[in-house]
Amino acid sequence: MVLKSALILLSLARFLSAYQSPTCLSPNIDGSLSNKAICCLNNNNIGEESVDGTIYKYKCGYYSDSLIWQQGQYSSNANDCARKCSAQATSNTPCHAATWMANSNQPNIGTCYLSTAGFKEKPDLTGERLLLVRTDRTPMDDYQPEIDEVVKQEQENCDKIIDEDRKRYIQFTRNCRNLGPYYKEIRMDKTVKFQLFCETYPQSKNGKLDLGRTSGYEECLKECASRGKNCKSGWYDTSSGNCYGFKRKEKLIGNGTWNIGFARVP
């Protein structure tokens, strides 16, 4: 669950950062002329962005030869032109690059030309054209090192939790083989004695004190002892490592769970 949440947050952060401002291949740009202005602030602008999960490289002032069709297609923006290339990617004459122009014989509508494999990048002296090159990469490929690091950290955390659970289990079986009550002394500024009851649980949880997560029942007893008269009884949950206490001496009952109940001895 923690790993899933981390990956979702990572993906969301990347998604939001990519859409903080209009980008060259954004589908949300109105008008081909506006799109051209965003893509090509100068004639040497280059970059890469994702279009429907595929990374496209763009380069202002260049175009591709080896056209699939000599006749261009109407295309409202660079994103639409890239999509036309992606749609042609699995055909008998797959598209590997596209050239987009911001003008056509329609107002504020551009023109898109698709190119096959083996195309060459050529400079456009007029500066009117934008080259779009389809890659085999996806956005996740770029983030894979970060994802691997998250997975590694989460695996280390899981291993640590499993090791703590194993230690608590060993401690529980070692000290609770007999279900009868026994005593445990905790030395603080002065000795505090507790009576422990294996596999017991408080009859009521009203007014419980959350003493935090501890590495074992002895640390749980220390947490209770440190609170003086404000903690007179409680229980340690060996399955989660959580420690709870009560200001009163709560009645403990057996319920077959892996809990260690305790009560301060006057």
From TrEMBL:
Keyword annotations from UniProtKB, A to Z: Signal
Signal sequence residues: 1-18
Protein name: Apple domain-containing protein
Species for this entry: Aspergillus caelatus
